[in-house]
Structures are given as C-alpha cells and as structure tokens.
What we know:
Number of strands: 10
Organism: Caldicellulosiruptor obsidiansis (strain ATCC BAA-2073 / JCM 16842 / OB47)
Strand order of the largest sheet: 4-1-5-9-6-10
Protein name: Acylneuraminate cytidylyltransferase
GO molecular function: N-acylneuraminate cytidylyltransferase activity
InterPro entries: CMP-NeuNAc_synthase (IPR050793), Cytidylyl_trans (IPR003329), Nucleotide-diphossugar_trans (IPR029044)
Keywords: Nucleotidyltransferase, Transferase
Strand content: 15-25%
Amino acid sequence: MYKGKTFLGVIPARGGSKGIPRKNIINVCGKPLIQYTIEEALKSNFLDKVIVSTEDEEIAKISRECGAEVPFLRPKELAEDTTKTIEVLIHAVNEMKKQGYTYDYVVLLQPTQPLRRYWHIDEAIAMIVDRNEESLVSVSEVREHPLLMRKIDENGKVINLFGDNSDLRRQEFPKIYKVNGAIYINKINENFNAKVSPNDNKLAYIMDRKYDIDIDEPIDVEIFKLMLERIIN
Length: 233
C-alpha cells in the first residue's frame, strides 16, 4: 500500500515459449528465471500481494516454492501466442475479486526482465500515485538511435527512416526511449478494459539501461549471467 492505495503485482508466466523452451523456469545461475522477478516483487514495500498468472502446473509449483501466490490457474485459451497482455491482467483482477480481494492498481512484472529491482517497483508506484496518473510504463534510453536507422527501397538504396538530417554529432542526438517491458502499472477503474495496451501507458518511469535485458533468445541468457554479479550484488 502507498498513501492509501493498494497494488496487486501480477507476474505472467505461460508454459509455452518459442525462442527458449520453458523459458520462464529455465535455470540461470542456480535459480529458475521467474524467481528473480518474484524475489524483487516480494521485497517491494508497496505491493500488497504478488501473484503468478499461469496455466502451467509446474510453473505454479515452482512459483509457490519461490514465495509467490498462485491463487488460480489461468485458462489455456488465455495462454496462447495470440493472447493479449491486457486479457491476462483483466482475468487476474477478476479472479482476485471473486476471492474477495480488490485493488486500486495492477502492476505487471514480466519475468523476462529479471534485472528490475524492488526499488524500481516502489519508485514507479510512488510516481503514479504522487502524480495522480492512471497508467505508467518503464522505459530505457535506446542504444541504437533511430536517426541512424534506414529502410532500403526496391533499388537497393537507403531511405532515411524519419526524413530528418542525421549529420548531427552523436552527442547532439535527442534522447529517445523505448518501452523496456520491466514495469507496467494501470489504475483499475472504468478505463481499465480490453482496449487498453499497456505498452501505450502514459507516464514514463525512466530506468538506467544497465537494468534493461529482455530474455527472448539463448544469447540473452548468457548476457544475463554476465550481468548478474555486477548488477544484483
């Protein structure tokens, strides 16, 4: 709870994944991947409850062993490649309501962003409440600036992606940020519905890009291993 507002932390973890089979529970330096997110969520001073939303019995078991609650199993039709994140969040909120728990905000914490720390979560929660906003998304400054990106036409010629002159020195490039997938917060009210896209949340919580790694391919796991000691410890 923060300033009288309550927060439900939801960690979505379906069993199916293409790039890395069973990605959410692969062993990384002695822990299942999802445990890194669960541990930080449980350290939060402001999250009132931390649950894992999964359709998978093994993920549910491991999540409970790591300290998270799994108060329901998600229907398999909400664990497909085509399932939208907002559908998972709405289902979680509604299931908790059936069990007698209601919250002011839902906080989405994806296990594929394991470098996010508990104080990132708390800072983001404080920000959205203090600014009286309905939605927040974490962002990081981009490594590859879009001013240097190009399309290639049918004749093999490069086309400036934004139509801007890019002869600036790199130090003069305007700062550009990307949604990094670490933290999403939405107020649970009449505007929280199936039309919401968390990637389009409005208030920006800026994270240092050293905490930004998205586990999607095997190489990402190796990079994560290299970063763990420097970032976490």
